[in-house]
Design brief:
By secondary structure, this protein is an alpha+beta fold. About 35% of the residues lie in helices and about 15% in strands.
């Protein structure tokens, strides 16, 4: 590409005006001078130092009008007569600037348009006179100059006559608009409440006074300012509710890159949210459950755990266990929900993993990377330790960054659409959508809702998802099961049965000393013979000052697990025999609040155990309880709806009586002293099943099906 040259007669631009080079004298070393003739004015002559001009950023040669490709798409939006007029104006503009009406034209040049003997101003005036003589209305030299500027900026499209009405922002004082554009985003970033427009009007005046001097710039009248404020908010995208504005403020700057996962378990996202439906916890106590979900990005598979408000690390452990273990078919489920009836290669998988023989059609995924938010339960050291023990990479997202885990955030909306809105007691996604008598509807119990939720999770994997596409069938939306079946030949399937120690590793952890009295925390003392050789000893973990690693289950506080040199050892609470009924951390926390300490630590713990036993018996006999006590009992019993791993048994799933998506099953109330023996008619008819079915593993009264982890893991251990 050749460099521009300064030749005699060439056009240059300096000081915002166009000049013609009349002569050049001297050399750069001796201080050359250049004579320029004003082409835009009266043709006066001026002389400049060439070195001075070359150092001026506004100095340079004037390039001729370059050939612009017509914007066919834009021109097609206007009538044909306007298109012809625009092309006609293009020829006139090129004739003014080059002397030829078309690029590369040949022939004689009209004297009034010859660049060698006329100035640009003269040619513009000549063109205006010519068009006026032809009958063009209101054509002057300024009109021709505007045509040239529009053509240089937008090509032929700039010569199309367009009616452009001014907006309120165009008519407003630019200093007032500047103030609003500075104040509104600042309030959005600070997440301030919107307030009235009167406050914003005063803040705008204060901003203008601080920037330009007191009362130098006045804000418009109240009605005009309110309309201007709406226009500025609309231009900044800040209109909407407070929640919508906060969501926009928290959203990272675009463009957004979609999360890509090529194999099952490569990226799994976890999150918790209150379930948008009311349930009956116990004794008529109405409340909401908390849903902790996991979504596999590659297959859009969904897992979830329902608990009373306040997720625990145990819920994360249950969620990970559900992902890595098959779902057992329920007796009342339709055969179409089984894995044998799905698109998954069931026969080949069953030959590798016998647990899939009677499994429901739901993927089994081993997480590689788990993406979580900044929730306390997700970023706790115990969660990190549990993920590390399973070889899972834990990746917390930055605070207030929902799009970073958009797949699991979006799943809550789908759950509301496909599940919650069909339930009695649906609260809606916000208070504005909530009915006035929602709590008076015939609400479901926690056990009923849990059973329906388990069946819904299987149905979810038979539902086409618009985000799942196969390269060979890009127009067909696949189901999570179909996507899992498509990725299995590429990613493979390796069964990972969890052993007893694996489940203990997933439980919450704390570090405690082993004293002569045993291990004490939360006003409970745990002791056993396995601790005899380690009392008062150092664990050898220098980062924990020699304390011992202890795992516990908040939903079963009667035992803990201590990591000793030979492995985990289960240690029982010393007052286990004093409490005749099971309890959870909800009940224990309540007892600790209402019982005052009157003696030593040992005496206080014994008093707590006796008070706990009395409270549990009162609750079992359904005696009159206070409102706070009823809430505690309701939360405690609701926690039993979802089982948690124990130290001796492996939770394969949560088999419980199912009523199907079309009906409701109400489990009978079974007292603590009810015992079913072989041949008992009550036991045969309890769930419409025989004793053979019960002995085969199906639960009684919603109890959990548990299996021996040692026997299950034995075929896979070296």
């Amino acid at each position: 590409m050749s460099r521009p040259m300064l030749d005699i007669g060439g056009a240059v631009r300096h000081g915002g005006r166009e000049w013609a080079v009349a002569g050049i004298e001297g050399a750069m070393a001796s201080g050359a001078r250049i004579w320029l003739v004003d082409k835009d004015g009266d043709g006066s002559l001026a002389v400049f130092a060439l070195a001075e001009l070359l150092g001026d950023p506004g100095f340079g040669p004037v390039a001729g009008p370059r050939l612009r490709v017509p914007q066919v798409g834009l021109l097609s939006t206007v009538p044909e007569e306007q298109q012809l007029r625009a092309f006609d104006l293009e020829r006139h503009v090129r004739e003014v600037e080059t002397g030829y009406p078309t690029p590369g034209g040949k022939g004689l040049v009209k004297p009034q348009y010859d660049p060698k003997c006329t100035t640009l101003a003269q040619r513009e005036q000549a063109k205006a006179d010519e068009l006026a003589a032809q009958g063009w209305p209101r054509v002057s030299r300024a009109t021709v100059r505007r045509w040239r500027a529009r053509y240089h900026a937008d090509g032929v499209w700039g010569l199309v006559a367009k009616r452009r009405g001014s907006t309120r922002l165009d008519r407003a004082d630019p200093q007032v608009v500047e103030a609003l554009r500075a104040l509104l985003p600042e309030e959005a970033l600070r997440s301030r409440s919107r307030g009235w427009k009167k406050r914003m009007r005063r803040e705008t005046q204060w901003w203008l006074d601080a920037r330009h001097g007191e009362r130098t710039v006045e804000v418009p009248a109240k009605s005009t300012f309110n309309k201007l404020l709406d226009s500025v908010e609309e231009s900044l995208g800040l209109q909407g509710t407070v929640a919508q504005r906060r969501a926009r403020a928290a959203r990272p700057a675009p463009p957004f890159k979609p999360t890509l996962a090529l194999r099952p378990g490569e990226i799994v996202m976890l999150d918790s949210s209150p379930l948008d439906a009311l349930v009956v916890l116990d004794d008529g106590v109405v409340g909401r459950l908390e849903l902790t979900t996991a979504v596999d990005v590659a297959t859009r598979s969904l897992w979830g755990v329902l608990r009373p408000a306040g997720s625990k690390l145990t819920d994360v452990a249950v969620l990970l266990a559900q992902m890595m273990t098959p779902t057992v078919m329920r007796p009342s489920w339709d055969a179409a929900l089984s894995m044998a009836a799905s698109a998954v290669p069931h026969d080949r998988l069953s030959a590798v993993d016998e647990r899939l023989k009677d499994a429901a059609a739901r993927p089994v995924v081993i997480p590689e990377t788990v993406v979580v938010d900044q929730g306390k339960v997700f970023v706790s050291p115990a969660t990190r330790a549990a993920c590390e023990s399973l070889g899972i990479s834990l990746q917390p997202v930055p605070p207030a960054n929902g799009p970073a885990k958009g797949h699991v955030e979006r799943s809550f909306g789908s759950i509301n659409t496909e599940f919650c809105q069909w339930l009695p007691g649906f609260t809606g996604s916000n208070v504005g959508e909530r009915g006035s008598r929602v709590n008076q509807e015939p609400l479901w119990s926690v056990s009923e809702l849990q059973v329906l939720w388990e069946e819904f999770l299987v149905h979810w994997h038979h539902r086409p998802h618009e985000g799942l596409r196969h390269p060979l069938m890009p127009k067909k939306a696949l189901t999570p099961n179909q996507m899992w079946a498509a990725l299995l030949p590429v990613a493979g399937y390796v069964p990972v049965p969890l052993s007893t120690d694996d489940f203990v590793e997933l439980l919450p952890v704390r570090w405690q000393p082993i004293t002569d009295a045993g291990i004490r925390f939360d006003y409970r003392t745990y002791d056993g013979t396995c601790l005899n050789d380690h009392r008062g000893q150092d664990s050898g973990v220098r980062s924990r000052n020699g304390l011992w690693e202890v795992h516990y289950n908040p939903y079963d506080p009667v035992r803990i697990w201590v990591r000793l040199p030979d492995g985990f050892c289960e240690v029982a609470w010393i007052h286990t025999t004093s409490v005749g009924l099971p309890f959870t951390h909800h009940v224990w926390e309540h007892i600790c609040k209402v019982v005052d300490r009157t003696g030593s630590r040992e005496e206080h713990e014994a008093e707590l155990a006796l008070a706990l036993d009395r409270f549990l018996k009162r609750a079992a006999r359904k005696e009159k309880l206070s409102a706070s006590e009823r809430r505690v009992v309701a939360k405690s019993r609701a926690s039993d709806a979802v089982p948690v791993p124990t130290g001796e048994l492996n939770v394969l799933d949560v088999p419980a009586p199912s009523f199907g998506l079309a009906g409701v099953y109400a489990a009978p109330d079974i007292g603590d002293e009810t015992v079913f023996e072989d041949g008992d008619d009550e036991g045969n008819d309890l769930f419409g099943s025989s004793n053979d079915e019960l002995e085969a593993g199906w639960p009684v009264g919603g109890c959990l099906l548990l299996s021996d982890t040692e026997a299950e893991a034995e075929p896979w251990l070296p």
